[in-house]
């Protein structure tokens, strides 16, 4: 049987909903299967993405009998975008998601939660802050990092993880300033660069680099990323132009907020293990989150499965069929009714 077609912008297979939780409006996509659903899957995107980033996964999970909830995360798309960095802590945003489930899905006490990129970071923390709400947790590309007992700022982190040097640009003001000054065309060029746009032959275009970030001044002459259609790139540009880049890039400014909000988790002790069934899918060619970063994470879980796909950071799109297979197998396993004795 052929896989269902990926979502298009304004696809009739999903509903667009909004809900006020903890003083913030969240927009989310809701996909319902035909007939009763087996369970609910909550999907959390990263940067520079949207709920639409799960366009290949939502129809597949829907066809497999699952209800899917995919929010625009805080700062993105149709969701509120506070300027204050304090709103972007992983504990606070986990509480937002729990409140969203309470408000609109009161009959779903437990869900499977999955994420990619920053969404991957958040779902690990959600499973720690709200373990009673989770049947299973999975992350694509983003390994689990345990709470830390000592704070390290981003400049210190990049000394150990040079693949995070681009985050120095994102945590600064250049991205917000340049995209605001250039308007939607600049936003579109910025997104195209991050989605893998390559230089046009004979031009002075330069691609994104994990060492230096986005080379503003050299991104107008990039070919359109092969991972996005013109319609999809236009949709991303429209959504990112709604509130600008301050909200999305606030996730890169939240290290201190996250450290403070993780103190309770750190206090559990170094031997604590996450009980929730978990799946980590690594991407073999992810320059920002290389597979080596996941070494040792198994020690923090009672039940961790691993998968991998041959893809760049954009595994959800680039290796969608294999990602979908691994996710569906995991979701089926953790939601299957236990046999009674």
Automatic annotation (TrEMBL):
It comes from the Eukaryota. Pfam families: Abhydrolase_1 (PF00561). Residues 40-148 form the AB hydrolase-1 domain. The keyword Hydrolase applies. The keyword Hydrolase applies. InterPro entries: AB_hydrolase_1, AB_hydrolase_fold, Epox_hydrolase-like. GO terms for molecular function: hydrolase activity. Coiled coil: none annotated. Keywords: Hydrolase. Belongs to the AB hydrolase superfamily. Epoxide hydrolase family. This is Epoxide hydrolase 2. The lineage of its organism: Eukaryota, Fungi, Dikarya, Ascomycota, Pezizomycotina.
